[in-house]
Amino acid sequence: MLDAPNSQYRILSAATVPAYLQTLPAVVDRLGGAPSDWTVRDVADGNINSVFLVDGPKGGVCVKQALPYARIHGEGWPLDINRAIYEDAYMARLAPHVGQLAPEVYSFDAEQFVIVMEKLEPHIILRRALIAGNHYPAVPGAVAEYIAQASFHTSDLAAPFERKATDVSLFSKNLSLQRISADLIFSDPYTVVWRNKLIEPYLTAWGAAFRSDVDLKSEVARLRALYFGKAQSLIHGDLHSGSVMVTAEDTRVIDGEFAWIGPSGFDVGNFIAHYIMAWYAKDEQPGDETEREAYRRLIETDIAAFWSTFRQRFLEIWRAEAGAGDAYFGDHFNDPAGASRLESLRQAYVDDIFADARGFLALKVIRRIIGYAQIADFHVIEGAEAQARAKAGALALARSLLLHPDRYPDIASVIAALPRFEAVGFDPHPSRNW
Ligand code: SR1
Ligand code: MG
User: Fold this and answer.
1) Whose Cα sits closest to atom 1 in ligand 1?
2) What is the CB-side half-sphere exposure of residue 125 using CA atoms within 13 A?
3) Same domain, 281 and 356
4) End-of-domain residue from the set 101, 118, 135
5) The domain containing residue 306 runs over which residues?
6) pLDDT digits (tens, 9 = 90+) for 4-45
7) Ligand 1: which residue has its CA nearest to atom 4?
8) Which residue's CA is minimally distant from atom 8 of ligand 1?
9) Which residues in the chain show pLDDT less than 70?
10) Is the CB of 373 under 6 A from ligand 1?
11) What is the pLDDT of residue 322?
12) Which of 167, 319, 325, 378 has an alpha carbon within 20 to 30 A of 231's alpha carbon?
């Protein structure tokens, strides 16, 4: 057994949740009735936390507790439960800017590391929708709006440096989860380590190709330094299709425990990466081939809509709210020449986010295929060889993005490249100029 993180901390179970919630008056009021009237469902789906949905006569709540170990690995992988502090702080910091695009928090318990928040029902996880082939056209725009608001309002463009320094000081303590990202995203896929889960023997050569490519590893090193050194805005840090819950009318971003002050392009790239992996996986997933191909066209549209909405909204927000932060000091750009220059600087700033996103996108694809935390998009494919075929295409695109970024100056060129790598197969052809 792991040592208890503090003497009061108890891991909740479906059986103990009602008694626990009874100690929180605001939650009791929301649920209505008495604990004996409440039903509890254990709906944990992610890798590291407990999650329960609780319903009472009056309403429902979601209860999320940070476990002291990785749920998917058991007690052999200890984790710091303090991450719940940063998740709560992340949601509080963004709430004024993202509003209804995130669940409302009702209570945070810093002893039990429990966040009680709005129950999202009948929402489903976006990843499940992508796998099922159900399309939610409002999602890309909503997530783009969320990231644009977060990226602008927590950056030096909107926040005085004193505010930004407070954010840096708080979120720079979220260290244990950054260690997970450092290892699982930036280290493991390019070395041999027990955590990796490359499909043998089909992807063996691809793994070796990544481990032996010094040019590629140099780019990984540059992006890793960017992640830890470019304190641009408050980022979610794990914004993939499993961190978005959807209905036809409503989109919410959840699970901000990897919060960090880092490059704004990280969340952008991560979100696109998971659409791209959904695209490659779709070819081998079960179901009607014509429908799967048609769904791929929808994914392409979603990727384009996501980036164009992000770009447009980020620029609009900046134009509308210029001058509040300490960067690009408004007073310096007051005359017509200054206004025109500031507009070019805005465009350059967003171009820079795209360039960063393109690199992080590639790393996110690679970590989900070679590294420890893999995704259901590929797992639902029947047979290791078919899974590996779909994964090889995604790996080939990722390698090309890292080695030849100049070939991908915009989102259209990334989308156009998807089919080029689809049939690449199990030989990484290191000598080919991909
Ligand atoms: C121990 S598994 C860790 C991974 O799960 C989370 O969803 C993050 O993606 C993290 O890298
Ligand atoms: Mg997560």
Assistant:
1) 70
2) 18
3) yes
4) 118
5) 124-431
6) 567 799 999 999 999 999 999 999 999 999 999 999 999 998
7) 373
8) 238
9) 1-5, 323, 430-433
10) yes
11) 74
12) 319
pTM: 0.97
Three-state DSSP class for residue 125: strand
The CA 58 to ligand 1 mean position distance, Å, reads 35
Closest ligand 1 atom, residue 79 Cα = 1
Which atom of ligand 1 lies closest to the CA of 184?
Answer: 11
Is 233 found in the same domain as 110? Answer: no
Residue 165 to residue 205: CA distance in whole angstroms: 45
The CB of 177 under 6 Å from ligand 1? The reply is: no
316, 387: one domain: yes
Q: How far is the CA of 180 from the centre of ligand 1 (A)?
A: 7
Task: Give the residue from 103, 118, 133 where a domain finishes.
Answer: 118
Question: Are residues 57 and 168 part of one domain?
Answer: no
Long-range CB contacts (< 8 A, 24+ apart) of 319-328? 319/346, 321/152, 321/158, 324/157, 324/158, 324/159, 324/160, 325/155, 325/156, 325/157, 325/158, 325/159, 325/160, 325/161, 325/164, 326/156, 326/159, 326/160, 326/161, 326/164, 327/155, 327/156, 327/157, 328/157
Give the pLDDT of residue 89.
98
Looking at the structure, do residues 185 and 51 belong to the same domain, yes or no?
Answer: no
Q: How many domains does the chain have?
A: 2
CATH number for 368: 3.90.1200.10
- For ligand 1, is residue 46 a contact (CB within 6 Å)? yes
Of the listed ligands, the closest to the CA of 179 is 1
Atom of ligand 1 minimally distant from the CA of 238: 9
| Distance in Å, CA 373 to ligand 1 centroid | 6
Residue 378's pLDDT is 98
- Say if 6 falls within a structural domain: no
Q: Token pair for residue 218? A: 């140099």
